[in-house]
Specification:
There is one protein chain. The protein is mainly alpha-helical. Among the domains are: about 160 residues, no CATH class; about 80 residues, no CATH class. It is about 75% helix and about 0% strand. The chain has 27 helices and no strands. Helix 18 packs across helix 20. The longest helix is centred in the middle third of the chain and has 35 residues.
Length: about 625
């Protein structure tokens, strides 16, 4: 128990207990729950990322922890007054002007320590624009915003720092992280990896295929690309390297597979819960809409790995190197039931908070049936500690993104930005989509997915809606590219983490990951032009677009790997790439041309290969 008595563990465990109290006895008012959630997250960051570079905690760090807790207690004490005051009529109390300024500075410093200068510099630039934007001439300028007005919008409302993103973190995401932590501590995470190795290990390139399967399963639980890379990569990357894949290819496969976990239902990443809230779409509908694009994404990666294995002449694992399926199911098979439970609760209409909390309790209960998985007193405390520590990776980006979104809303720059995209694209959809794609990737470089999506969705979502796209399709498009920014050089965060695990060249790993993820860059255009892939439309259209897209990404896999029956010539790879583009573009004419061209190339290569043999 001594390991839980350090300040960070105490704060993390108390945080988890407070969240569980809200789950069982009702969420407190937003002016209580959200400041407490944020202040505890900031406290952990201040103590785990201290001011001194040598890693020792300075007295200054304790002062910052004290200030963050005091401000949350101010909200706790004044929540009734804050709830009853009339916005823009009642004056802002002077104590909240001081507290608000300190709170903003605290979250900026927290972001700098945890996330670096990427997203932090964007927040600083947004604050500068908020106070100096009235000096900018032309359409990009805005009215003069006084400090009390800024504080009221950011601190005393749910449109800024305490807005929707932080609310999703406090009221939804924490409970899914708690479920993930319970599953991991009990051994359920390792179960997914072992099952994936058992299912795919004996096929050619088996470890790489196991990485794809396990990362998709773990990703749908963890919802964090980098955490997924580390959690599964430490097992799968050494296996891939031992089989014969190069270190940079092994790291790239793991990075692409782990990043795609945020696209894989039923849980997806934190950004998906925010997407549901921003679009007013039930989360189950979001998860259902994400299903087919995610499957197509993984089909492409699976085929690329298979063809690369064929080109290198790689085999699979031997029977001795793989876990025994019966032993896996006997020892830890019961831990698969909570995953079914969480989906069942959501389908039955229970709240996301209750579904995740009940599933986490289910993990604890079921773990007691086997000694190897049993979560005793220490295990439960370890789960609570881990959940608190893991949640800072979501809570802090959501809070800093809330500040940026508050500035965007208060200054009106979001509508101006949307108008700029519509005007530059001349109202044409394809140029607008390309501009949106590049903007999402640039804004998302080096940022957590949730923060990248919040900013991109706020700035770019209205522009695509103006062009007549369904709101779910437009935000799914933005969400995809916010995620793919994790794989896009020069700041391919997932690939760089995987490179560290694989001990490979950073640049090679990043570019190979980008290459392997190209299907993810085509699929969003497909479901925008044909939303039936998101189950918006007729069943026949959904079936047809799914078939053509799978054929398209298969062609892309052949083009990138450069092998089918044998090594392809350069012009043959180009033709397969043309087929991929034609088949992914959702028009009947391009579909039929693409299918005809694909069948023709395939038959020519098949007959030539047969004659040569």
């Amino acid at each position: 128990m001594k390991r839980f008595l350090n300040p960070v563990s105490v704060i993390a465990i108390l945080w988890s207990f407070s969240q569980l109290y809200w789950a069982f006895f009702g969420m407190l008012h937003v002016f209580i729950s959200r400041p407490i959630h944020l202040s505890l997250a900031m406290s952990i960051v201040f103590l785990t990322k201290p001011f001194k570079k040598n890693g020792s905690i300075h007295f200054f760090d304790y002062i910052l922890v004290f200030l963050s807790i005091v401000i949350s207690m101010m909200y706790f004490n004044d929540w009734s007054f804050l709830n009853d005051r009339i916005r823009d009529v009642d004056p802002v109390p002077i104590r909240y002007i001081w507290a608000g300024c300190i709170y903003i500075l605290l979250i900026i410093e927290t972001s700098r320590r945890l996330l670096g200068w990427g997203v932090t510099s964007v927040a600083v630039l947004a604050l500068f624009y908020n106070f100096a934007g009235h000096l900018i001439p032309g359409d990009l300028g805005h009215r003069f915003i006084e400090l009390p007005t800024f504080i009221e919008f950011q601190i005393l409302s749910v449109e800024g720092l305490l807005g929707v993103p932080l609310g999703v973190s406090a009221e939804v995401v924490f409970y899914f992280i708690l479920f993930s932590a319970a599953l991991d501590v009990s051994g359920g995470g390792k179960l997914f990896i072992d099952l994936a190795i058992r299912l795919t290990g004996r096929f050619r390139g088996g470890p790489a295929k196991a990485a794809i399967v396990s990362s998709s399963l773990m990703g749908t639980i963890s919802g964090s690309a980098t955490a997924n890379v580390v959690g599964t990569g430490i097992f799968t990357i050494p296996l891939m390297k031992r089989l014969g894949f190069t270190p940079h290819y092994s790291g790239a496969v793991e990075a692409v597979a782990s990043t795609g976990g945020q696209l894989m239902p039923p849980i997806m990443g934190a950004g998906a819960f925010i997407l549901a809230d921003m679009t007013g779409t039930p989360y189950l509908q979001v998860a259902a809409a994400a299903a087919l694009p995610a499957v197509i994404y993984y089909v492409s990666l699976f085929l690329m790995v298979d063809l690369e294995s064929k080109k290198l002449g790689l085999s699979g694992l031997s029977e001795d190197e793989m876990p025994v399926l019966r032993d896996l199911l006997v020892e830890r098979g019961l831990l698969l039931l909570p995953v079914v439970l969480i989906v069942g609760y959501m389908i039955a209409g229970f709240t996301l908070m209750w579904s995740a909390t009940s599933a986490a309790i289910g993990v604890v209960v079921l773990s007691w049936f086997r000694k190897s998985t049993r979560l005793g007193f220490i295990g439960i405390f370890e789960t609570l500690e881990k959940a608190g520590k893991m949640t800072i990776a979501v809570a802090i980006p959501c809070a800093i993104a809330g500040v940026i979104v508050g500035v965007v809303d208060d200054t009106g720059i979001g509508l101006k930005f949307s108008g700029l995209i519509v005007n530059v694209s001349k109202g044409m959809l394809f140029p607008a989509l390309c501009m949106t794609m590049f903007a999402c990737i640039i804004m998302g470089m080096g940022m957590p997915t949730a923060a990248a999506y919040i900013m991109s969705g706020t700035l770019l979502g209205p522009a695509l809606s103006k062009l007549g796209l369904p709101i779910l399709a437009s935000h799914m498009f933005i969400y995809y590219f916010a995620i793919l920014s994790m794989l896009t050089p020069p700041v391919a965060l997932s690939a760089y983490v995987a490179s560290g695990v694989a001990n490979s060249d950073l640049t090679k790993t990043g570019w190979k990951a980008f290459q392997l993820s190209l299907a993810g860059f085509l699929v969003p255009f497909a479901f925008v032009y044909n939303p039936s892939m998101l189950f918006i439309g007729s069943l026949w259209e959904t079936i047809w677009v799914t078939i053509t897209c799978i054929l398209g990404v298969s062609s892309l896999a052949v083009s990138i790997s450069g092998v089918l029956f044998k090594t392809l010539r350069y012009w043959e790879r180009v033709l397969f790439f043309v087929c991929a583009v034609l088949l992914v573009v959702s028009e009947n004419l391009t579909d039929f041309i693409g299918i005809g061209l694909l069948v023709s190339i395939f038959l020519i290569l098949f007959i030539r290969n047969k004659n040569e043999k």
